[in-house]
Amino acid sequence: MPLSDPQPPREPEIEALGRAAHGFLWLLRRVFWIAGAIFAGYGAARCGNAEWTFHTPYTNTAQVHGFTWLCVGLPLLARCDWLFGRTRWLALAIAAALWFGPGVMQDDHTFGFILRIFATVVAYATLLVWRTVWRLTERTDAPAS
Fold first, then answer.
1. Phi and psi at residue 96, to the nearest 5°
2. For 63-110, what is each residue's pLDDT tens digit?
3. Pick from 75, 69, 60: nearest CA to 124
């Protein structure tokens, strides 16, 4: 039978601060989700307003820029378990399609994919930090053996 180190009980102030931090992080995740919905909606609206023409330069500029907003918004809408769990490869494939798909359009800047990759990395990093802090604030009441 493994021996476990006895843990002293936590002070009530630490418990209260932990609950407050956990509540704030819960609220912050809802704010991130709402921001992601706004960004993705705005990006989808910009992508839908322009016509798909691949030969006329500078007619799809709004549409191409809409993909950048989608790259920021979609990761913020997804669940952290989906982004960092078993389906992370599917999330990466969707992100790669959003990064390099608009490159076939005439109006995409030569380095436009870099902006879209950066936007996705910012969204992923935000959720990675959030998830890490969320797990640090979870209660760990392990039963004593």
1. -65, -35
2. 677 788 888 888 999 888 888 888 889 888 988 888 887 777 666 777
3. 75
